[in-house]
Design goal:
Elements (H helix, E strand, L loop, with lengths): L2 H31 L2 H4 L3 H37 L14 H6 L7 H12 L1
Keywords: Metal-binding, Zinc, Zinc-finger
InterPro entries: DnaK_N, Znf_DskA_TraR, Znf_DskA_TraR_CS
GO molecular function: zinc ion binding
Amino acid sequence: MDTTKIQHYKKALLSIQTRINQLLTKEQSFLREFNPLTESLDEGDFSQATVDREMELLSRDALLQISKLVESALKKVESGTYGICERCQQEIPEGRLKALPYTPYCVSCQSIIEKKYEK
């Protein structure tokens, strides 16, 4: 992959990382200010608040996982290994990198990994 493309992906990764950090900061601030579990008045509200709280935590976990992938991808940019599948060591197709610039795997290897976890 040429230097221009790598720099394009680096900018995209940095942009994603910035956005994730903004979302996490905003979420932390909101969670400190308002806990729907303590504000609920009836059982129905409490149930909905519990579901909402769980979804917030799942979203946070997903953002943290993506953040780790972005950090790893940025390290690969610096080391010269960006765009190389961690499993098969082949170049990840550009279409996949455009869709998921932080992906560590090509489509084939990602599919194999997902099938392992389905069992």
